[in-house]
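Bench log, entry 3. Co-assembly request; chain sequences pasted below exactly as received.
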Amino acid sequence: MNSLVILNSVIDEIGSALLFFVNILKTLMRRPCSRDELFQQIWKVTMQSLVTTGLAGFFVGAIMAVQFTLQMREFGALGYLGGLATSATVREVGPLLIAFMLAGKVGAFTSAELGTMRVTEQLDAIRCLGADPLQEIILPRFLAIICASFFLLGLGLVMSIGGGILLGGLLAQVSVEEYLRHIPAIVTLSSIANGLVKCFIFAVILATVCTYKGYTTTGGAKGVGLAVVNTAVSTMVGIVVADWLTSFIADVAIRAFVGSPF
Amino acid sequence: MIKGYAVLDFVGKSVMDSYQGVTQFIQLVVDSLAEGFRPPLRIRETVQQLYFIAVQSLPIILFCVCFAAMVTILESSFHMKLVIQNDSMVPGFAAMLILRELGAVVTALLVTSRVGAGIAAEVGTMKITEQIDALRMLGIRPIHYIVVPRLIASVIGLAILTIIANLVCLFVAFLVSEIYLGFTSGLFITGLVRFIHFQDLVFSIIKGACFGFVIPLVSCHFGFLCASGAEGVGLATTRSVVASSVIIIILDFVLSFVFSFFS
Amino acid sequence: MIQFEKVVKRFGPRTILKELTLHVPAGEILFILGTSGTGKSVLLKTLVGLLRPDEGEIWIDGQEVSKFSEIEYLGIRKKCGMVFQQPALFDSLTVFENVAFGLRRHYRLPEAEIVSRVHSSLAAVHLPDASEKMPGEISYGMQKRVSLARTLALRPQVLLFDEPTTGLDPITTASVNLLIEELSRQFSTTSIVVSHDMTCALSIADRIIMLDQGRIVEEGSPDHMKRSQVPLVKEFLAEVVT
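Structure output for the full assembly:
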């Protein structure tokens, strides 16, 4: 009984989040937000997360290099280290980790900001002044998160290649040229497309969840804290599921059309 | 010229701020360790926290880790075929990745966003509603009362969660490789035995415990510094999630690097 | 009983308390009035060591306490009970456990003694029946009174009130003010009340101090205050309901 109630409320939440998403899309079609506001938000989101994603990217690259070194040693195929680590980062780990980091940073920040606006009745004030909070407040943040996550993904990838090169040199004595040489061969266009699609889907999930949770906050300081926690958790769950779905669909599609995953 | 000064000013201020933050954090770590060994041991509170940190996080962690395991094995298969034209090693490799990185890190990141954020929000709310001052007025040391039970519970909890996550992850990887990729169970187990050693599990548990040490300390640090108002609590929560996540990734790298010399 | 000697407290570049000197004899009810942000709450928090002064000395009961360590301060805090601006009840505990909290940790009392002390404290604030409720289930005014009971349970010699009536409706304000006077006389404690409620100060204070920007601008008995020529005091007097 109890688990049924929980399941029911989870489905309820997902449903209202989807409706909220549709509302945002409708607003986007009918009344786009001001361009200045949008650029300002993109700038804000990007600058806020620059250091975090850069750091995370660097160390993720380093971790991948350490792990792949250990594996490739078995085969004496250390030359492929750079290509493999980069490919894994582009296809999978990069988008996933950037999304996780953004969920903690931008997602939590946005829901805290919107939640504070909600509990201090600023959102109601906007409505009373005859403006649409969806258009004025939510939409620019929503679009900004999606745009910024592509910039940040790029930064994260560059930093992770940097981290990989450093550790590859340190641990496996793979020189920079050696490390970079195999990247073009292994990281194919389809891999890059795969990474970009994932990045886009994760960003949409993140942007929807954090604006939705912030917009529907209730209950003072405690409520804001709760909204932030819920945002981070639900975003991560959503991202992991979406990650599996995209990987799985890509795999099935490739098998269906090409025969084997190359 | 003036712009140059402004930049210098900004950099100087951020350096000073982060320096102050780091010294305060170290102070908190030292204090918590000292208080941790002081009686009374608050066992009931610790067990309650353990329930909140470990038991209540379990479903969400298992859910995420299962999906992560499926993705890992699909991706390993893709890369193996690409490089060595042969995917017979996939189960072993995937299992190794799961045990060395995925299990501990994914668990820790999820716990950060759920428990770490929760602790920061709770402590922040206590701070702005003057509950922490009230504790001190009643002669209770806030670190002993608030931080220590969470710290102990989190270290134990994450170590246990990491073991469970790893085992479940391996099991899911096994299922996927058998059902979807067509490996026989014999092949999977041969791969496991060849690539995985008992020490990998031990390292993974050490990683989990280290992450468990970081999460509550960072959260309490930002909770104690919380400024008043709804905005303050949100900010403290956000900061603690970000700081813990970054520290976890850096720590993971350091530990992986150190452990790589033992294998 | 309590003495401030040239106490200075700074927050970054701002100086909140400027060489403040203050004497409070035992048994007195002292009101400290002033506009928001003049350092009234800071003054109380420096007294009990929640904040530390940058310069100057603080004497409590013949001891200079401003350099005390956190552990040494515990003894002082048992003597001084503070009622916060917000109720600051621990939300995870029942009203009973909130009031018993300090007793359980400081004194090895038998359970029966704790129960009787908690009930007498709750009775003193006219809340005899609320003991099994959670803080979230009772009204804000009741939370405020429970917080007062929690402080009383330790039988403090000094009672400190940080804006006890801010944000309360007039009726609850009146009842809280009445309680302050009643309890101070009944337990013969020294009481310091930080407030901006001149009406209440005039009716129950032994002495009133007017604080402005970290300095004392006027002090004296309620009658003295009524005749004061200091502009700030006159402004406060203009608000008094007669």
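Chain A has a mean pLDDT of 82. Residues 31-257 of chain A form one domain.
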